[in-house]
Structures are given as C-alpha cells and as structure tokens.
Amino acid sequence: MPYVALEPGGGGQLKGLCPFCSADEFYISPAKAVFSCFGCKQCGDTIGFLMLAADVDYATAQRMLDS
C-alpha cells in the first residue's frame, strides 16, 4: 500500500509530499532507513512511519513489514 510518491532528492535521498501535512519537504534516507518532514517535524524509522501512516501499534507495524 503506497503512502508517498517519491522522486530522487539528491545525496541518495528520496523526496515527496508529506503524508501527514502535505508539505513538500518530506525526505527518506534509504541508507539509514529513516524519514523526516521539515514541515510538521515528524521523523523516525520504518516502523515509526508505518505506525503513523497506518495508525497501528508497534506489533502490527512489525507484522506488516514481515509479510
């Protein structure tokens, strides 16, 4: 289930519209497996993203990644 359309953002990062505030300042670092938005200040790792975007708890986000 896609949440964000991404494009190259330079320096190995990807960028897109933030799914939380629609700011055009949402970046993902695949090498570090982290995301950040300079608009709403949300940031975290892969599980944290799933917890926020899908509104699920840690265990459910982990199961989503495992499947």
From TrEMBL:
Domain of life, per the record?
Bacteria
Q: Return the Pfam families for the record.
A: Zn_ribbon_DnaG (PF01807)
The UniProt record lists the Zinc finger CHC2-type domain at 14-66
Q: Which InterPro entries match?
A: DNA_primase_Znf_CHC2 (IPR036977), Znf_CHC2 (IPR002694)
Protein name, entry field? CHC2 zinc finger domain-containing protein
Species of provenance: Streptacidiphilus alkalitolerans
